[in-house]
Amino acid sequence: MSNLLWLTDEQMERLRPFFPKSHGKPRVDDRRVLSGIIFVNRNGLRWRDAPKEYGPAKTLYNRWKRWGDMGVFARMMEGLAAASPEPKTIMIDATYLKAHRTATSLRSKKGGATD
Description:
The protein is mostly helical. The protein has 4 helices and no strands.
């Protein structure tokens, strides 16, 4: 796959303060794993479909799960948003829905009563 995502040195330096301290065994390469996690989530892939360049899918999933449970990713997002000089705009969802009048479940059916 030629369009893999790799975090830059600058991006890694901005994220590094949010990493939990490593206890005991050193962690697998943070850049490779975080780049893989972002790639999987951005593209809506299953963990097992992650490109091999990011390492074992189990490693990606375990880091995502462990750091997610610890709140590491939430702190990263909050910290990056707070450090941003730009005005903050939060977009929850850009979905536009329109229901047709025939889609309602309240229409009476033949022989049935409505509320």
